[in-house]
Write a structure and sequence with these properties.
Blueprint lengths: L1 H10 E2 L4 E2 L2 E3 L4 E4 L4 H17 L5 H18 L9 E2 L9 E2 L1 H16 L7 H12 L11 E2 L7 E2 L2 H16 L4
Antiparallel strand pairs: 1-2, 3-4, 5-6, 7-8
Helix pairs in contact: 2-3, 2-4, 4-5, 4-6
């Protein structure tokens, strides 16, 4: 929780309500201030996982986490393209479109609805992302058009793209959506 607080304090762009990408703590400056989609997805999904395991005596901290997740979702979801993808840099249409940030947002939405800290009204966004992700899967089960490895500077495939599809799909199934 302390580490999350530190990252939030440094990385949050208060004008965008999204997290900037790369901070150099030695130089006390951003190396890359862009609001990277996958970075915001990782943050939302990571805080979602922490919120789910906090014991009851950490209810105040859980409330802080869930408000932060909602802040990211509320800022990111309006930036989704009509085809269901997100730009690699969420607010930069000159960056390439990809789906992994969306998979992480959808995972957080499904878990948030299941956990009672997000209203059902977010499910339409999660379902749009889910349906878009379905269209990215090839005959071998690989999710394409994620921020691709090894350099993550173009769409492709990556283990995290596969992992977040599985997490998103499992969270969706836990809500009884088929």
């Amino acid at each position: 929780l302390h580490q999350i607080d530190g990252y939030w304090k440094i990385l949050l762009d208060p004008d965008k309500n999204l997290l900037s990408h790369q901070w150099d703590d030695g130089a006390k400056e951003f190396v890359r201030k862009d609001v990277w989609g996958v970075g915001n997805g990782w943050a939302a999904a990571g805080m979602t996982r922490i919120a789910a395991i906090l014991p009851p005596e950490y209810s105040a901290q859980k409330l802080i986490l869930t408000k932060r997740i909602r802040t990211l979702l509320d800022a990111a979801l309006p930036l989704q393209r009509t085809d269901g993808l997100f730009y690699d840099v969420l607010d930069d249409p000159n960056s390439f479109p990809e789906i992994n940030s969306g998979q992480m947002f959808a995972y957080s939405i499904y878990q948030g609805v299941k956990g009672g800290w997000l209203p059902d009204s977010y499910l339409d966004s999660a379902e749009h992302i889910y349906q878009t992700a379905q269209k990215q899967i090839d005959d071998y089960g690989l999710v394409h058009n994620v921020c691709g490895m090894p350099t993550f500077d173009k769409p492709g495939t990556a283990p995290e793209g596969q992992a977040f599809y599985i997490l998103m799909d499992a969270a969706r199934a836990q809500l009884g959506i088929h």
